[in-house]
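=== RUN LOG ===
request id: a7f3
mode: sequence -> structure
chains: 1
length: 115
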Amino acid sequence: QVQLVESGGGLVQPGGSLRLSCAASGTIFRINHMAWYRQAPGKQRGLVAFITSGGNTNYADSVKGRFAISRDSAKNTVYLQMNSVKPEDTAVYYCYQIIDARNYWGQGTQVTVSS
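=== RESULT ===
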């Protein structure tokens, strides 16, 4: 049974930084794409950033230059470094990984940007 466990969410002031982590556990042979999505109250879940198995990345326009996605394949972990955060970054952040051709989601972690 593969599981994704997220950590690192919380309350941060505008302009501050936060780092999210998402570790996959279980029987795993290959992880392809890894990504972070977010869902704010009353809005649909949307892509924040993704990273391919080869390390190529892509970002939503709203976070370009502020957020950075990275992965540690040896640890089956994906990270999201969030810098210069804004109140509009407030949302539940979900990790997503394609593992052995199957889609997996994390349980979500709340990020609140407020003074």
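=== NOTES ===
The longest strand covers residues 31-39.
The radius of gyration is 13 Å.
=== END ===
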